Amino acid sequence: MIRVRVVGVALDPAQQHVILLSPADPLADGERVLPVWIGAQEAMSILVAIEGTGSPRPLAHDLMTAMLGELSASVSRVEITHLDEGTFHARVVLDTPAGPRTFDARPSDAIALGARVDAPLWVAETVFAEAGVPRDAVELDGEEPDTGRGDEERVAEFRRFLDDVDPDDFQG
Hints:
This protein is an alpha+beta fold. It has a single domain (2-170), classed as Roll (Bifunctional nuclease domain), CATH 3.10.690. It contains 6 helices and 8 strands; from the N terminus they run E-E-H-E-H-H-E-E-E-H-E-H-E-H. The protein has helices at residues 26-29, 40-51, 60-70, 107-117, 125-131, 151-164, and strands at 2-11, 17-23, 32-38, 74-84, 87-96, 99-105, 121-123, 133-134. The chain has an 8-stranded mixed beta sheet. A hairpin with a 2-residue loop joins strand 5 (87-96) and strand 6 (99-105). Helix 2 packs parallel to helix 4 (107-117). The longest helix has 14 residues, at 151-164. The radius of gyration is 16 Å and the shape is globular. InterPro entries: BFN_sf (IPR036104), Bi_nuclease_dom (IPR003729). Pfam families: BFN_dom.
């Protein structure tokens, strides 16, 4: 498995939300990022967690976090495990008083929950190999990829990729 981090949430040309995951260790597969299409509510929930901004009322993932705390359980890791006919599958691994427990989840929910508790996020190498896109197609974290191309060309290349890809191929 490759440890990853969330590097952004964006809209594709069809106004679908996309979360971008990048290897935490560039040596793992630092030349690629993994786009995962998610719903608008999940995108908002992930952004709230990553940016540390609160919401006026608890979101579903805030409720899950509070419940886990009251039950003396914690999220030990989030894993995107495989692709099945274009759909990502994930699991949340919990540490509980009764021992470790694993739950299947949509990747967007697993990431939103994991982001709230700073749990490590992992992606199976086979998923990254199958669904990853070139890192230089996007600008990550304000870094300038060393491609010798200007911003406009990189943005145009990423837009071409998004125009050609079908979100149903990467449902999360």
